[in-house]
Amino acid sequence: MKRSSVPVAATGLGGLVGSRVRAGTAGEVDWLPLQVDIREPDATLTRVAATPADVVVNFAAFTDVSAAYAQRGREDGPCFRTNVLGARHLARACARAGKHLVHISTDYVFAGDRAGVYTEDEPGDATEDWYGFTKRLAEDEIRARCDGAAIVRIAAPFSALPGVKEEVVGAVLRQLGERTLPPMFVDRVFTPTCIEDLAALLVAVIRGRVAGTFHAVTTQPLSPYDFAVLIADAYGRDAGRVRRGELADYLSRGGRPYPRRLALANAATGDRLGVSLRDVPTCLAAMRATAMTGTAACRG
Ligand SMILES: NC(=O)c1ccc[n+]([C@@H]2O[C@H](COP(=O)([O-])OP(=O)(O)OC[C@H]3O[C@@H](n4cnc5c(N)ncnc54)[C@H](OP(=O)(O)O)[C@@H]3O)[C@@H](O)[C@H]2O)c1
């Protein structure tokens, strides 16, 4: 029997992730844009109280990592005000109105300075990267103010779903075609997010009104270089055009700091929510099939 769709209010539906999650949850979620600047406490209280939805998803954030770094130390800057104060205002508003808050977070809440994987129950420890630091404080705001909230960490989101802005796979394919792909780091690891899997995970969190911290990421950590090679292979491009670069070289030339090892575990997330989080090759193969047939990505 077909399930009825759930009304959900959301900020940031016009962004890279929100627009694709919206496309990927059609028929499951009836998205109601929450039209508010979350830096404004009173307006946020009023808008959250007024929405007919029982669930609020926060996709809104200041996401330009380099611009954020240029604001480091400035609590009056737009990055801190959107990411930290905005999260505080939403958490307070949802707690008061009795709404289930689902907050989108990032692997950058971690410093990325140690070997091994970060598990769902670990609090963030980022200090150097200002975007990551503010997103870490956002998580703290939500845990402190809004019992029952869900925090969903994602990383380098990629997708075949339609949406605004260019996601990672499209960017790599375009740059390979134009021969403008910069050298890709071999000495960094991450666990990118397949937005099709994130969409399914969010449906589970929303329908179950689930609380806790979750990692909506693929299953095997890899380097940006390996990711680009897998993308080239999956789409039948010449993987030999992917050049190797080193984060260590970039940093020695004065580049902005990057977290080096951001491998997120997802086993507890999959078990708790009963969703499957696939590996990168499987996700890319599904995306490629979508591109070939022109049909929506189909999750098994
Ligand atoms: N993209 C990534 O690589 C990545 C990786 C890890 C985690 N994330 C997380 O995923 C979430 C979504 O990111 P995204 O890539 O979709 O970001 P995005 O493309 O930059 O979109 C951000 C959205 O937030 C809205 N917004 C910004 N400031 C706001 C404010 N003060 N009040 C209300 N809305 C505001 C923007 O609206 P306007 O366009 O009108 O300003 C836009 O719709 C964020 O929490 C981000 O930290 C993203």
From TrEMBL:
Involved pathway(s): Carbohydrate biosynthesis; dTDP-L-rhamnose biosynthesis
Superkingdom per UniProt: Bacteria
EC number: 1.1.1.133
Any Pfam family: RmlD_sub_bind
UniProt keyword Cytoplasm, yes or no: no
Enzyme's top EC category: oxidoreductase
Residues in RmlD-like substrate binding domain copies: 10-266
Gene3D superfamilies in UniProt: NAD(P)-binding Rossmann-like Domain
SUPFAM superfamilies per record: NAD(P)-binding Rossmann-fold domains
InterPro entries: dTDP_dehydrorham_reduct (IPR005913), NAD(P)-bd_dom_sf (IPR036291), RmlD-like-bd (IPR029903)
Entry keywords, A to Z: NADP, Oxidoreductase
Main function: Catalyzes the reduction of dTDP-6-deoxy-L-lyxo-4-hexulose to yield dTDP-L-rhamnose.
UniProt-listed PANTHER family: DTDP-4-DEHYDRORHAMNOSE REDUCTASE (PTHR10491), METHIONINE ADENOSYLTRANSFERASE 2 SUBUNIT BETA (PTHR10491:SF4)
Family under the similarity heading: Belongs to the dTDP-4-dehydrorhamnose reductase family.
Protein name, entry field: dTDP-4-dehydrorhamnose reductase
Provenance organism: Luedemannella flava
